[in-house]
Design a protein that fits this description.
The complex is a heterodimer of chains A (329) and B (263).
Chain A (H helix, E strand, L loop, with lengths): L8 E5 L1 E2 L2 E2 L1 H5 L1 H11 L3 E7 L3 H7 L5 E6 L8 H15 L3 E5 L2 H14 L3 E5 L1 E5 L2 E8 L4 E7 L4 E5 L15 E4 L10 E8 L12 E5 L6 H13 L3 E4 L1 H5 L20 E5 L5 H4 L7 E6 L12 E4 L2 H17 L1
Parallel strand pairs in A: 1-4, 1-6, 4-5, 5-12, 6-11, 7-11, 14-15, 14-16, 16-17, 17-18
Antiparallel strand pairs in A: 2-3, 8-9, 9-10
Helix pairs in contact in A: 4-5, 6-9
Chain B lengths: L1 E6 L1 E3 L6 E2 L6 E2 L5 E3 L1 H17 L2 E7 L5 H8 L5 E5 L9 H19 L5 E5 L10 H9 L2 E11 L4 E6 L3 E7 L3 E5 L11 H9 L4 E2 L14 E7 L8 E3 L4 H14 L4
Parallel strand pairs in B: 1-6, 1-8, 6-7, 7-13, 8-12, 9-12
Antiparallel strand pairs in B: 2-5, 3-4, 9-10, 10-11
Helix pairs in contact in B: 2-5, 3-4
């Protein structure tokens, strides 16, 4: 690929209440691979009202932090953020622009593409280099089919899937450069008037070593407590399928699957989960899968290392008791 | 309120799609084309808004002429009129190209009707590619605001107030009109057609607009090139345990987890 005069790799650091989201830091890893090709720097771009915490977090993981601060850049104001992103792309002429595949990351890259006539890939799960050209792997049809894709516009624009890349190793803190971006008043077309936090628990499914997930087969909120009990016993995190969340047994922060979190724990225990594609595509990266389901033909058994055919309401209490007994020994 | 709903016909997402064995060809044999699920949510939200404040809904899609079926489905559950935007030169358009085609079609429909659309609905993503690019790119092409991931919407004096889903809860976001919104799964399900509404939809004409009908639209060449199509490595199914009692099954499973040093 001919990079022309474009060298640097720009990574958009998404923040929530001043805290940088994990997938943005993970995106610094494919950025490093690309910088190896172009001979440029990995630049992390923080856009917010106060970037101090995000800059501190990213500085040891990249070659430079660009900090665009201002009252306009409040969480949710994508109109202002896309202005900042576009201004930095114009100033630094990067070879690639990466972001996490979050609603904001998707929106900003889509709008950047429209403004600059660029192609892009979304939800990249892998990056290979073939003869000097970046080749991105992206999922189709909920992940049952994968495409390897190359882009022929510069900068290369991609959003990356959460959990697909690991964060880079920390090194020496890179310099932080303050950048000023004026947002024209007519660029702001939408206004955030209220932000409501309904889910206060912090659920870290992406970094969990053990996940115990409950599905529709758990039957009730009362029964779902067993999933929570086993997760706690194993020092793990509670996962859930969409039906369990729609039943209101647990908040959607716990959702594993295509429209939730993509996870890869060492141990994944699926309780009363049938194994719909939308769910399975979010957990096939798990190390060891245990499934409990009364239906012998449930598709979840096709991806399970150990499949227990039986009533989850009988198997789970017995499993909890047995593990508790062994822990006590 | 004049409302436009953009929709895409996709393979039925309740069917697992695979490749034809030994090829790089996606096997869509026998898979029914349906209206993208998120577009059906968008239409339902639009219809509820129309029922609350009055107005009219137009459904459009860019695709082959057979995408008319998708528009027809929408006419039976809330849309008042529908169009298919179809042209051989549009066939390999990518999402950015389709946003330009839609923008040109919108300008054409607005000129014909002598009034602009107030609100343009799209699904948050299509279930086939899930790129989520179209809504924001259409807003850029039209020069309007965009609010993504709605789970509810209401009319205000100044325009609309949208309930946008976030990871922790939601935001209320306001915009003047016109505006583009993309819709996530709301708390309600799309309505079903009745026999009467289906019959009525069947009788309605669904005009096809071609490139010649639109004002100078250049979708451009696709910039993403697929170099390989493949399936992810499959997990091997392991052992199945089905002992006499649940307790025996549980103990056996715990033995295996312990042997794998996972406890």
């Amino acid at each position: 690929m001919d990079w022309g005069n474009c060298k640097d790799i720009l990574v958009f650091l998404e923040q929530k209440e001043g805290k940088v989201v994990n997938v943005s830091l993970e995106a610094l890893t494919p950025a490093r691979t690309l910088a190896g090709l172009t001979g440029g720097k990995v630049l992390a771009l923080a856009v917010g009202t106060d970037n101090a915490a995000a800059a501190e977090k990213a500085a040891p993981l990249c070659d430079g932090v660009l900090s665009v601060e201002g009252a306009a850049f409040i969480d949710g104001c994508s109109d202002a953020m896309v202005c900042a992103l576009e201004a930095m792309v114009n100033k630094y002429a990067p070879a690639a622009v990466l972001a996490g595949n979050t609603p904001l990351g998707r929106e900003l890259t889509a709008r950047l593409d429209a403004r600059k006539g660029l192609g892009s890939v979304q939800d990249a799960t892998a990056l290979k280099i073939d003869n000097g050209t970046p080749v991105w792997t992206v999922p189709l049809y909920g992940g049952t089919v994968l495409n390897d894709v190359v882009l022929d516009t510069l900068p290369v624009v991609a959003t990356v899937r959460s959990g697909a890349f690991s964060k880079p190793e920390a090194g020496e803190a890179a310099p932080v450069t303050a950048e000023a971006v004026e947002v024209p008043a007519d660029a702001i077309k939408t206004k955030v008037v209220e932000a409501v936090k309904e889910i206060s628990e912090s659920v870290n499914l992406e970094e969990a070593k053990v996940i115990v997930t409950g599905g529709r087969g758990m039957g009730s909120q009362e029964n779902f407590a067993l999933v929570e009990e086993l997760a706690q016993l194993l020092g793990g995190v509670v996962g859930a399928t969409r039906p369990a969340i729609e039943e209101g047994w647990v908040s959607r922060a716990h959702q594993v699957g295509q429209s939730g979190k993509i996870v890869s724990p060492a141990l994944y225990i699926a309780c009363g989960v049938s194994g719909a594609t939308q769910h399975v595509s979010g957990m096939t990266g798990s190390g060891y899968v245990v499934a409990i389901n009364k239906d012998e033909d449930a598709p979840i058994f096709d991806v399970a290392d150990v499949g227990i055919v039986g009533d989850v309401m009988k198997v789970l209490p017995a499993m909890i008791e047995e593990i508790r007994k062994r822990k006590a020994e | 309120m004049e409302i436009l709903v953009c929709l895409k016909q996709v393979p039925d997402d309740s069917v697992e799609i695979h490749l034809k064995p030994g090829t790089e060809e996606v096997n869509l044999d026998g898979v029914t084309p349906v209206v993208n699920a998120f577009d059906t949510y968008a239409l339902e939200m639009a219809t509820r808004l129309k029922e609350a404040v009055g107005g009219s809904i137009t459904a459009i899609t860019v695709g082959p002429e057979k995408a008319r079926d998708a528009v027809k489905t929408c006419l039976a559950v809330g849309a008042n009129q529908g169009y298919v935007i179809s042209d051989p030169t549009f066939e390999d358009a990518d999402t950015l190209g389709r946003s330009k085609i839609l923008a040109a079609a919108i300008r054409k429909l607005e000129a014909d009707a002598g009034k602009p659309f107030d609100l343009i609905f799209c699904g948050r993503e299509a279930t086939d590619r899930a790129s989520g690019q179209l809504g924001p790119q259409l807003a850029e092409a039209l020069g309007t605001g965009v609010i993504v991931d709605l789970v509810d919407i209401e009319q205000t004096d100044a325009g609309i107030c949208a309930k946008q889903e976030t990871e922790e809860g939601y935001r209320k976001v306001e915009s003047a009109l016109p505006c583009v919104v993309t819709v996530n799964k709301p708390a309600y399900d799309p309505r079903y057609p009745t026999i009467k509404s289906k019959m009525a939809a069947r009788k309605m004409a669904i005009p096809v607009l071609s490139a010649a009908d639109l004002d100078s639209v250049e979708p451009g060449k696709p910039t993403a090139h697929v170099v390989k199509v493949f399936e992810p490595a499959k997990r091997q199914a392991g052992v199945k345990i089905n002992e006499e009692t649940a307790a025996e099954s549980a103990i056996k499973a715990v033995d295996m987890m312990a042997a794998a040093k996972l406890l």
